[in-house]
Amino acid sequence: MADRPEQSQGDAQWRTAGDRIQTLLDATSTGGVAARERAEQLVREVVGLYGAALSRIVDLVADAAVIERLAGDDLVASLLLVHGLHPHDVHRRISDALDRVRPYLGSHGGDVHLLEIVGDTVRLQFSGSCKSCPSSAVTLELAVEDAIRAAAPEVSSIEVIAADADAVIPAESLLTKVHSNGSGPQWHPVPGFAELAPGEIGGFVVAGVPVLACRVGDRLYAYRDHCPGCEGSLAGAQLQDALLRCPRCHARFDVVHAGAGLDDTTAHLDPIPLLVRDGVLSLAAPAESTGVSA
């Protein structure tokens, strides 16, 4: 689920700049150790130059309101973080990040609370999640982890405190289903989703995964194109208010509430995280073999 974003092709380009730089650095290794060291030194010099310029800009602005606006821009905020110029401390950044994903968690009947930050470890507590829908729980955990990593790159570990016990559950164990085959789902820009009109359904293929995107009012929701009732595609499905009806078996699902089945409460659609990341609407497309389906 995501609000209608202000899409920017530039944001999509720069969001992956770090990966492209790393790829170029890796390619220099073929030229030997000296070539690799020169390339790394070049990157350090460029980063240092832009860091000094950003620091000078922050000093010259000297206006708290303007600095706040800069920190509110995902792309600019990421650069401020790199150079230690972000105006907010780690607690404020994580709290704000959780607030941004809280509407998404609410659509799955869940919530998250920041308990404490100890060193570089963040401790959270989930509540009210859709316990009957394992895939929904995975999407919540993935969304929260991603939001925290983006807002606070200095965080090295995330722990979840069970609501009914004192046990500490490392986030990595909660995300076993996601990360079981390597790095897990990859985020992919999906600007085409934003073009859907209210009440409209669109079929897409993202990283080889068939995806069904729906807009209910101002909100976007994404699910795997698979009906748990008849095991078929949902192509041609109808959406009325928040209810999606399979065109073959006529099973009904609540799009707004994690795809819960209305006719068979044990059946549910498989939600896929759909969030605005660095100003770009993106989807965490699962690999076919990750077993994200419940």
What labels describe this entry?
four-stranded mixed sheet; GMP Synthetase, Chain A, domain 3; alpha+beta; four-stranded antiparallel sheet; 3 domains; iron-sulfur; 2 iron, 2 sulfur cluster binding; 294 residues; single chain; 24% strand; globular; disordered C terminus; Rieske Iron-sulfur Protein; 9 helices
What do we call the CATH homologous superfamily of the largest domain?
A: Rieske [2Fe-2S] iron-sulphur domain
CATH class of the largest domain: Mainly Beta
Q: How many individual β-strands?
A: 15
Spans of at least 5 consecutive residues with low confidence: 2-9, 173-183, 289-294
CATH architecture of the largest domain: 3-layer Sandwich
Largest sheet: 4 strands, antiparallel
Strand content: 15-25%
- Put simply, the count of helices is 9
What distance lies between the first and last C-alpha atoms, to the nearest angstrom? Answer: 19 Å
- Give the domain tally: 3
Compute the CA-based radius of gyration.
21 Å
- CATH fold descriptor of the largest domain: Rieske Iron-sulfur Protein
- Please list the strands of the largest sheet in the order they lie side by side: 1-9-8-7
Q: What is the SS-derived class?
A: alpha+beta
Write down the secondary-structure element order.
EHHHHHHEEHEEHHEEEEEEEEEE
Give average pLDDT, whole number: 79
Percent helix: 25-40%
- The outline comes out as globular
Report on this model:
It is a single chain. This protein has 294 residues and is an alpha+beta fold. It has three domains: 25-83, no CATH class; 90-163, GMP Synthetase, Chain A, domain 3 (2-Layer Sandwich); 186-285, Rieske [2Fe-2S] iron-sulphur domain (Rieske Iron-sulfur Protein). The protein is built from nine helices and 15 strands. The protein has helices spanning 9-15, 17-28, 33-61, 64-71, 74-82, 90-107, 134-151, 171-174, 176-179, and strands at residues 2-3, 111-118, 121-127, 157-161, 168-170, 186-189, 201-206, 209-216, 219-224, 238-240, 243-245, 252-254, 260-261, 274-277, 280-285. A four-stranded antiparallel β-sheet has the order 1-9-8-7, with no helix packed on it.
